[in-house]
Give the backbone structure.
Amino acid sequence: MNLIENINELNENLKPFPEAESIFSEKQPWLKEHFLPLISINLAEINPEWKNTILHMISPFEPYDSYIGDGTEEHHNEFTTPNWLAFRLTEDNKYEFLGKEGFFLRTAINNWDFNSEEEKDFQKMKENLEKSKENVAKFGHLVNLRYPEYKGKLNIMNFLDDLGGGFWYGNWTSSAEEEGIPSAFEMELKESDEEQLNDGIEITYQGNPFYYIGNVAGYNYCGSGADAIILMYEPVNRIVLFTFDYS
């Protein structure tokens, strides 16, 4: 697949700020309470054979600290563990969550306090996303929410930090080695050299490989969030897998 880095301009395959109703399954309307939609990606951008397959980069509100899914283990299944969660992509390119709503700490199921200081921070993420929408409408670019100017010019942020290419080692692989990934999937980390595809990282579902799609920092859009929201895709079963990297 093509590798494209530091994407700070849009085109016909990259559509920012999709409506939650257009990207989440109608059967799971509660998903919009847990994720902020950032940008929709027509995979034709990196692989012509995947034309009209559209994935969505999303930022979860959680975690406030630690990993998303920490503390809710009784509600996990084979598609979810701390720092990992999976969707099935429907035929009309919507996400159907393969886990349970209780995976998210921020629910009545888990007695979340919606008047807490943590909740105020999550609501600030939503406000920041609206500000980013305004900036893109005004300037055509994402702009750093804390420092919108640098040396008299717009301080432009990436819509995507990269797209295509292959997997890479980071804190996300280290935590996966230590804590595991959802049991529906298998992950192999081979000794890597510069010539190895995907840095020797292989993730599969029922023997079918996941492909690295891309990543972006959540704070590019929301002012806070993961240093890298990592999106991957298994096309045979149309499984979308997310994990998150933190410095």
Observations:
- The chain has four helices and 17 strands.
- Residues 3-165+212-227 form one domain.
- The helical segments are 20-23, 117-139, 171-179, 219-222.
